[in-house]
């Protein structure tokens, strides 16, 4: 029996089409994804379907994954960098149940990684795709509340409003205070919201090996960044873009000082320490440190 | 750290699921029959059918049972279920003139053609508790039905009464602009579930979005318009509740086939006059229209008020802005996003902390520089 | 979930694999991807054009072909998509070895909706790695998004005028049209409107 037959039997036994979505819905997502890839960073409207998961909880990323995935894929789903975060568990279960695909927490083994708010620390390859869940696809939302006017700004490449907003930040606070979801310019043309990934992850999008696909289910937009495409954070000449500074802290579990760290407060002692947000990276790091006797 | 402890996530979810079931049953009372919810909570069922955008009283009632009465969750379930149903046909345009009217009122005139039919309504009751309902017994219910049902049911030998539309009367008298021409054959309504909505929206997309809208959301926006954030001044020309026939084209032979009847509420609202397209320079009354599944008068009236408000050439208030109204009334989108804030956001929060510390350092430098300068 | 809704399971998985080939091709212009086996088609119909049509077309989009022959009828029946003039089509399915006026007529989108620019799917003879000697066909070098530095492909059976039309339609980015080239054996190359093309041969 082939993997393909196993997958088909698993899905039809439950009365679902393979990968849950009907073919008509997959076709709509597939068409729109191709246009998104052809116009890097541009938000393509799509007829987003309703799923048995609440809007705002990853239905856009999910529709992309369901339209892409085949029986030979290996799936990883993370939220805040963790495979065991409750929402990642739920999404992974839905996809696995309706496709029968292998799932993994190892970022090196996955062919499709669906993520909320992090890009894996482990560099991704040309054989992999990253599907990012998007709460709000619109980088101009907080400088212009009208959708029609925003569309015209993107059409004309007129991003002066967002530059002014960043400048006012610097004047007021001495820094650009945009934290996660830092606005970037793609292929020298569209300003894009990279989703609420930390600034730490923004450089990973630039001229990467991997195809990045972005899905906003509630707002009904898809966008993409092809491999080897320029993704540049908006920055001032005299105030370059900077990633988060952990002040020399290291991960309590693996000792890493080269990954995005989360502060956490011990629920008994209240003591603060830092751990890697990327749990897969952390486990591998800890194992390596154990073997080599050195911190990374 | 239990929320994301390695391997703990799956167990935690399992426990949460068990607790959901436990909390629904722990009172130990007799399990609700879906039928009871369908029959005795008909207005809740109708609300959920409208917001879930699926006409199926059984599924709406089951959803209310499964969600312990959470209407937003129930609507989500119906929407997801509807998403999996195959689209086998598009019906012919339903003619509200064929409605088997259960209730019909008009505020426009004291007497109207066809008359006012009060139907089942609490509008004319005092909102006092009926404590006998706490002791209602099966035997009483059966006795009541035996005695009173025959008088309520319509006589099948008599033709259904017809109720001419008040708006048609106004049109005939030149007070309302004539109806616009029907769209060409084959040109169906815009379906927001099949095509991404962009602005400006076609009217069918507007009405569909309002029909799927959450009653409370529509109420807040319509109320704002009534209270002066807008200028609609609605008079209800016709408010009807009743069953309308739904027909589709038979795949072999092409005849129109009746597939069933749905209960709907329809509101036609007359708003202040203005210069109107198609009226050849003469001022006319303007119109708002609302139609939704089930018996939901509040929703139909608010739909009609918002339909009219959004027709203002220039939006001077939120209820007049199509972009504002249509983007914010969907129950599934709005509740999903509001509740998504419960998801972990610790990475983004960590990033915010970093920015705050940087800004605090900057502020400290400025303070220090000022002290030096002083 | 109604079982009647799904296509045969093989069709479902074939559509998925075919889509992955199209996506891989478009995301990395110049790399040759491989479609799964195509279904049999009536005579006079290009099986690969019909295959890609089935992956992407349905009632929600329109398509054009050169003339209204067997391909147009087959695709319309298979997908429910409506046949229209190239000037209003979302997709063009055509043979690439003769110059195509339709390619010049396809919509290129608008500044607000550049994604309304059409997708052209052209059948060609062969897609090959560039050979040391000139070889037959057009040898092209591509740069741009999706390409690390440069990608080269030799294309047999694509009329040079069609290539020129494609380039000309895309000078005003983000307006433009996107292109897939497919061979009878199922090799496919994707050229998004962002790609920069230089002709290396024949001289």
Please characterize this protein's 3D structure:
The complex is a heterotrimer of chains A (296), B (374) and C (203). Chain A has 296 residues and is an alpha/beta fold. Chain A is built from seven helices and twelve strands. Chain A has two domains: 3-139 and 182-232, Rossmann fold, CATH 3.40.50.11310; 246-296, no CATH class. Helix content of chain A is 30%, strand content 17%. The longest helix of chain A has 16 residues, at 23-38. Chain B has a four-stranded antiparallel β-sheet with strand order 1-2-3-4. The model of chain B is unreliable at 1-6 (pLDDT under 50). Chain B has helices at 8-25, 34-40, 42-52, 57-66, 71-84, 138-152, 166-172, 203-211, 215-226, 297-309, 322-328, 331-340, 346-373, and strands at 100-105, 235-249, 256-275, 283-293. With 374 residues, chain B is an alpha+beta fold. Chain C is of the alpha/beta class and 203 residues long. Chain C has one domain: Bacterial phosphonate metabolism protein PhnH (Rossmann fold). In chain C, the strands form two sheets. A seven-stranded mixed β-sheet of chain C has the order 1-10-9-5-4-2-3. In chain C, strands 6-8-7-11 form a four-stranded antiparallel β-sheet, with no helix packed on it. In chain C, β4, α4 (101-105) and β5 (119-123) form a beta-alpha-beta unit. In chain C, α2 (47-56) runs parallel beside α3 (70-79). Chain B binds chain C through residues 84-86, 194-195, 198, and chain C through 1-2, 4-5, 60, 113.
Q: Shape of chain C from CA axes?
A: globular
What is the percent of helical residues of chain C? 25-40%
Give me the CATH fold name of chain C: Rossmann fold
By CATH, the superfamily of chain C comes out as: Bacterial phosphonate metabolism protein PhnH
What is the total number of structural domains of chain C?
1
Structural class per helix/strand content of chain C?
alpha/beta
Give the uncertain stretches of chain B in residue-range form.
1-6
How many E-type strands of chain B? 4
Annotation keywords:
heterotrimer, A: 296 residues, alpha/beta, Rossmann fold, 2 domains, seven-stranded mixed beta sheet, 7 helices, globular, C: 203 residues
